[in-house]
Design brief:
With 226 residues, the protein is mainly α. The chain contains eleven helices and no strands. The longest helix has 21 residues.
Length: 226
């Protein structure tokens, strides 16, 4: 496992004063609660404290533009940590280790909290990924920040024995596994769940490595009943 600092007690950042950023974060929360198609632009503007109910259209053009802005905003927030993790992995000669690469791709999301201290981005991103239809590995319908792009490139090289559409399907599947544990487990009572969040996270990451890197099983030949 990469030498990664996981701050489980991180407090949400102070409320942004920039109106556009407030719209992004309000959209993230309402999309997480009601679905990407379930929150109106008026509701988002109101939650962001915007008197102009057309503020979303003004800044982002459409619902799809706001969705993309949320994705880009959060990806950029994780860039510094991913860059530091890449440097540590490079210094330790672990850039070909699957667990290390997957830590770089996934773990920075642990520190993303909304104004209420919740992981609303995890719920939003789950919905976003479920809408992805591209068969190209790491393609989520837009440009990616450079450190994430590098980590995805390293992962693709690590599983170069898989066809691109299989690797992409697995990438989305393991991302949903990770996001699910954030939404379901993080911040809950340890006694009720029977395990701590770090233990559940470690078990999930080990499952993720196996799911991502398992060789492709060939279909049996015709007439082969085994």
């Amino acid at each position: 496992m990469a030498n990664v600092k996981i701050d489980l007690e991180a407090l949400p950042a102070a409320e942004p004063t920039d109106g556009k950023t407030r719209l992004i974060l309000a959209g993230e929360q309402l999309f997480a609660e009601n679905g990407i198609n379930g929150a109106s632009m008026r509701e988002i503007a109101t939650k962001a404290g915007q008197g102009n109910h057309a503020a979303v259209q003004y800044h982002f053009g459409s619902r799809e533009g706001l969705v993309r802005a949320i994705f880009d905003y959060r990806m950029e927030q994780m860039e510094a940590e991913r860059g530091a993790m890449l440097e540590r992995a490079r210094a330790m000669d672990r850039l070909k280790d699957a667990r290390t690469i997957l830590d770089i791709i996934l773990l920075p999301q642990l520190d993303l909290h909304d104004a209420d201290g919740n992981h609303s981005y995890a719920s939003f991103l789950s919905q976003y990924l479920l809408q992805s239809r591209s068969p190209e590995f790491g393609d989520f319908s837009g440009s990616e920040p450079p450190h994430l792009t590098e980590a995805l490139r390293l992962m693709r090289e690590r599983v170069d024995y898989l066809p691109p559409y299989v690797a992409q399907r697995r990438l989305i599947s393991i991302s949903l596994m990770f996001l699910n544990i954030l939404m379901r487990h993080h911040g809950t009572d340890e006694v009720a769940f029977g395990e701590s969040f770090p233990d559940a996270l470690e078990d999930t990451m080990e499952q993720i490595v196996g799911s991502m890197c398992m060789p492709l099983r060939l279909a049996p030949a015709r007439g082969d009943s085994n």
